[in-house]
Design brief:
The protein is of the alpha+beta class. It has one domain (3-80): YaeB-like fold, CATH 3.30.2310.20. The protein has helices at residues 8-14, 21-33; strands at 3-6, 43-44, 53-56, 62-69, 72-79. The chain is globular, with a radius of gyration of 12 Å. The mean pLDDT is 95.
Length: 85
């Protein structure tokens, strides 16, 4: 299972989505077990964000992350598609 590092921006942004806290925790746990689980819709970002990846929490919410090494991921931000700006 992967280890996770929470970037300060992720922690700050997560506060805005407290009503989704249980679902976010569930999806992060699923992600840590299998980052490419089909239900997460994990995909690599492009352009200026090409070093990052993203997975879905629900139809609107996404988590942007990066692979730090083979055993560690960094959760960069959480939010709607606006996090890609």
């Amino acid at each position: 299972m992967l280890e996770v590092f929470y970037y300060p921006e992720f922690i700050k942004s997560a506060e805005k989505y407290r009503e989704h806290q249980d679902l976010v925790k569930k999806k992060i746990n699923l992600f840590l077990q299998d980052p490419f689980n089909k239900s997460l819709k994990t995909h690599k970002l492009s352009g200026k964000l090409s070093s990052y990846w993203s997975f879905s929490i629900n139809y609107h919410l996404r988590i942007m992350f990066e692979f730090i090494d083979k055993k560690t991921v960094g959760l960069v931000d959480i939010g709607t598609h606006g996090i890609y700006r």
